[in-house]
């Protein structure tokens, strides 16, 4: 990635990092405000229903008592006294009377002959409903009047009482409508006929359109339903309030994330510069991971793995910085550094263990450069390395410029340095292509070793790689062996060497020397005690 792309990417990621949490905060705030208003509408609708049930229950109780009195004349003095008594005893019923042939004949207030309008409609339970009726002696008040069709007894209910909820908020429309006819029985504010379609056969419905949030609740006992609707604008008012709390939190999270992204991006951008400083300041050191003989368990060599410890103590993984060094054109300096460190450490090793080998990882640029030959020649001289003490590992990715690399590899081999193809199977090279490079070893990549013993389709690949290596007459080193079952599988199929946590993790030079001498000692003891196989030393099982 070049610098311009990296900067653009940083800015884009930063913007995303800041805007996403804010967008989420606003969305959550909107959802919260919406749910809150919808809950309000729903609870109002339920309240209206409760009040209407109470009213109707009282009306029916009044009718029941009047019918039970079995008065021969409904307007008799005695019956009217009963009406007055029932009227007083009922909170929701405002007046009681008797209607016959659309004439109010009497009420708890006296005898009348008041012609009234025909019923607006009749309910399924035998009641006639008149809306907005005036009662004699109660001028100026309009009542909802319910008449028991069978007896003519009539009760007046204050029309606002059953919907007298939330009276202080005029923006909220409330009401009651008849489910079979769809007619509004009582209501205040906005009511749209098409809302009823949303209820269908359901107990309740909640929905919204551009204008309103609506909740409808059907009565479980009567053929009507209550509704309440809140203007959508109220949601936005609520949203502003919720956003005032949530957006600053979103902004804070966004800014923090933005800084984190920037920090990471800066680190990424600054890595080449930091690598240069690290090279100057000798912040690199080596770990060694033993390579074992699968038959004897003996450590026959080790791979040198570079480590970078920053001045603040942080360890940077090679997977991160090797690729950066390769891109920034710094990898050859890194390889140089590896060889310099090896130059000071490996001499002692080869002197004490003449058959031991150390493997060095080379990148594409190393494999294309004459400087690598010089570096290896110096290393061999400094460490008094003999044939086979040094080994280089080249990945398939490093073999792109085949002609140049072949020449360099040829020179490396002629110096007595052995060669291994690393991460085998992860590239796309053909067998014949690889054949032309003349390697000594093939390293079976960890990703394939991982599949051994699992049902994965790729576990079929290892036997193929083994066959390939055999046909190319290459010795094999299996990487990343973590279980005895994997080791057993590889051993049985003739893989000679292995490397992995089962045997030893990468370790310091001192630990490697200690492990080797412990292993040598235990082998001597084993020989004395009857020639048992020397196991990998304790220290190796990190
Ligand atoms: P690699 O060459 O494939 O090295 C093997 C990696 O696998 C090492 O990771 C090693 O620690 C890890 N490994 C070994 N056995 C096991 C195991 O049983 N389980 C697991 N999970 N991992 C295991 P490391 O040291 O982090 O190196 C990563 C890569 O960095 C190396 O992969 C190599 O490509 C590169 N690298 C390391 N040192 C150098 C170097 O000096 N020069 C160059 N050019 N590349 C290097
Ligand atoms: Ca390697
Ligand atoms: Ca490898």
TrEMBL record:
It comes from the Bacteria. CDD domains: EAL. Gene3D superfamilies: EAL domain (3.20.20.450). Residues 268-520 form the EAL domain. It is a multi-pass membrane protein. It is found in: Cell membrane. Its EC number is 3.1.4.52. It holds the Pfam family CSS-motif. Keywords: c-di-GMP, Cell membrane, Hydrolase, Membrane, Transmembrane, Transmembrane helix. The chain crosses the membrane at residues 239-265. SMART domains: EAL (SM00052). Its main location: membrane. It catalyses: 3',3'-c-di-GMP + H2O = 5'-phosphoguanylyl(3'->5')guanosine + H(+). PANTHER family: CYCLIC DI-GMP PHOSPHODIESTERASE PDEB-RELATED (PTHR33121:SF81), CYCLIC DI-GMP PHOSPHODIESTERASE PDEF (PTHR33121). This is cyclic-guanylate-specific phosphodiesterase. It comes from Pseudomonas zhanjiangensis.
